[in-house]
Structures are given as C-alpha cells and as structure tokens.
Design brief:
- By secondary structure, this protein is of the alpha/beta class.
- The chain has two domains: about 120 residues, Response regulator (Rossmann fold); about 90 residues, Orthogonal Bundle (Arc Repressor Mutant, subunit A), CATH 1.10.10.
- It is built from eight helices and eleven strands.
- The strands form three sheets. The chain has a five-stranded parallel beta sheet, with helices on both faces.
- The chain is globular and about 50 Å long.
Length: about 220
C-alpha cells in the first residue's frame, strides 16, 4: 500500500480524493492543521500532497520545512493561481504542482509517475550533482556563476530539468509543470523553449548547449 500524507484544510475535498485513490491501494491521511501534519511523522509516508492556503502557516513555509528535514516527494495542490507561487514552490523543492480544481485521475497519474521517477532516482548511484553548475538565488537561475536571462516559461522548464538532472522528463510532465506555455501549441512551444535554453546555456561555450538531450519518443533530460 502507498501511504500519502495530505495537508489540506478542505476535509470534503480530501475525502473525495481519498475515496478515489483507495481503489488503487493508496491510503490518504489528511490533516487540516499544518502543524499537526508536520508532527505526524512525515518520514513514514511515501509522498506529500500539500495545499498552499492553510490556517496559521502558509503552504510554502510547510514545503520549505519538509524539504529541509525529510526526503519525500511533494506535490503542491492549490487553487492559488499566482505564477510566483508555482515558481517559489519549485525553487523551494516541490516536485510537482497541480492547480485546483483537477480530476482525481490526473492526481493519480501524477502520484504514480512521481513515485516511479523518485524510486529510480533513489536506486541509481549518480556522480553528477544537480548543483554543480546550477544555482537558484531568488527568482534567478545561475549557470556556472552567471545569471541566466530567462523568460518565465524558460525558467519553469529549465528549473524542472535541473531539479531532476539525469532523469528523463516526458513532454507531458514538462508541459503540465510549465503553466506559462501556450495551450494551443504546447508541443511546438516546448521545442522552441528548449532550443532557446540551449542557446543561452551555450553562449560562452557551445558544448554547454548539448547539456539538454532529447530522448526520442519521451521528452528531454539534463546531463
């Protein structure tokens, strides 16, 4: 059984999701109070679903504390539509962001995909450090100590690849994560964004433009 910790102040919403996921042998334990959620033994759970608008403590603060203390994948689930909240969540260390309202089927897909990728990441012994050349400072991403001039969409895409360096991200995962991308032409938009990021990474050394590799039929990965 997959055990998921949920911190969500809407009990009816949490119950509906719990009932749907139960058919897939996934158990949701929800806490409306973020302080109770943090004291519930986070490390015994497989994944955290986190709302942002919580009583007494902002969800981004909860996310920051969990990332600092525990090694657990985090999906932010929020009705807050501010793109900055999304960017802040990824910068702090959240692994996925699913805006409300959403179909429980999509949450199930996100959960299984994230746990699969997380398991592979844990099992693989990689010598590459995600922070060797990339560094976040506020809303700016630095590459080899030089600030990159990125559009919001480029920042979202590259941030996701940096967070999962060495792990292939499917086109669907990247598009779903990058909320600023064009809805009408997502596939083409993603290819254009990747091309522009490659150019910016290779401004001083053309070899650096090859760090983002295309995985045929799947998506992209940063190496």
């Amino acid at each position: 059984m997959i055990n998921i910790l949920m911190i969500e102040d809407d009990p009816e919403f949490a119950e509906l999701l719990a009932e749907y996921l139960a058919q897939y042998d996934i158990k949701i334990t929800n806490f409306e109070d973020p302080y109770l959620g943090l004291s519930a033994g986070v490390k015994k759970y497989d994944l955290l679903i986190l709302d942002l608008t919580l009583p007494g403590m902002d969800g981004l603060e909860v996310c920051e504390e969990v990332v600092r203390k525990y090694d657990i994948p985090i999906i932010i689930s929020s009705a807050r539509s501010d793109i900055q909240d999304k960017l802040d969540g990824f910068e702090i260390g959240a692994d996925d962001y699913l805006p409300k309202p959403y179909d429980p089927k999509e949450m199930y897909a996100r959960i299984t995909s994230l746990l699969r990728r997380y398991s592979k990441s844990k099992d693989s012994d990689k010598s590459i450090s995600p922070k060797s050349d990339f560094e976040f400072k506020g809303d700016t991403l630095y590459f080899k100590k030089v600030a990159l001039s990125l559009t919001p969409a480029e920042f979202e895409v590259l941030s996701l690849l940096v967070k999962h360096i060495g792990i292939t991200q499917s086109r669907e995962q990247i598009i779903n994560t990058a909320g600023t991308m064009s809805i009408d032409s997502q596939g083409k938009s993603l290819d254009v964004i990747i091309s522009k990021i490659r150019t910016k990474l290779g401004e001083h050394n053309p070899e650096d433009s090859k760090r983002i590799q295309a995985v045929r039929g799947v998506g992209y990965k940063l190496v």
